[in-house]
Amino acid sequence: MRNLRSGIFPVIAATLALAALSLPAKTNAQAPPGPLPGTASQDAQSAAQAKAPAVNVPRVKNLAGTWKLNTDDSDDPQKKLRQARGQGRHSGGSMGGGWPGGHGGYGGRRVGESSEERQKMHLFVEPAQKLTIAQKDPEIDISDDADRKFTAFTDGRKVEKSKDASNQQFDAKWDEYRLVMEGKDPQGNKYQRSYEVLQGNQQLRETLFLKVGRNNTEVSIRYIYDLVSLPKKS
Which parts of the chain have pLDDT scores under 70? Predict the structure, then answer.
């Protein structure tokens, strides 16, 4: 019996030792790979960077670029003019169609107004579908898809008045980020038109401020343009 016990105990001890050695290895083989303690995984860092808010782009006082009209964000000029004249939806008079494509003139037909005068006023308030602006201070050239061109000078020079409504020059000024110019509409009333690039520099706002009706009711019409492309650097 003593010989048997002395032979069995070494075998049992050896078996337990082998099992103890193989257990950590098996456990490590089943554990999924991961980052070292105290370090973040690359995927987690990338996700955090993607969720981080973008740094605000500084607003610029530069209108240069090609801009396309955003009809969803822009005002309907005919509707704004009808409201300014105090005309309801079901009131009498010739209103014309809604914008774009309406032919109701300057917010409704005036007594004694010719078709040519109505057409001039309609073209005056109708927004361009696309604007192309070149800026080389103190001169800013604004052209649209209807072959109209505005040239604004911000150095206080005396500009020549043109009888050609499609090619006008203006003595303009900067009001912070707004380029402001003044003139007279086809009916001889004073108006103000301004352009400014909005926060983020991806949209341009054109604002037409004028007075209409017998009571000279003030109305402001805003058109929003989305940036298509910036001018190529020479």
Answer: 1-55, 87-114, 234
Tokens found for residue 87: 């005309």
Q: pTM for the whole thing?
A: 0.65
Classify residue 77 as exposed, middle or buried by CB count within 10 Å of its CB (0-12, 13-18, 19+).
buried
Evaluate whether residue 34 is within a structural domain.
no
Number of domains in the chain: 1
- Residue 79: domain span: 65-229
Longest CA pairwise span in the chain (Å): 135
36 assigned to some structural domain? no
Contacts (Cβ under 8 Å, ≥6 apart) of 134: 64, 140, 141, 231
CATH number of the domain where residue 86 is located:
2.40.128.20
Q: How far is CA 117 from the centre of its chain?
A: 34
In a domain, 15, yes or no: no
- Indicate whether 177 belongs to any domain: yes
Angstrom distance (rounded) from CA 25 to CA 30: 9
> Is the sign of the CA dihedral 182, 195, 127, 167 positive or negative?
positive
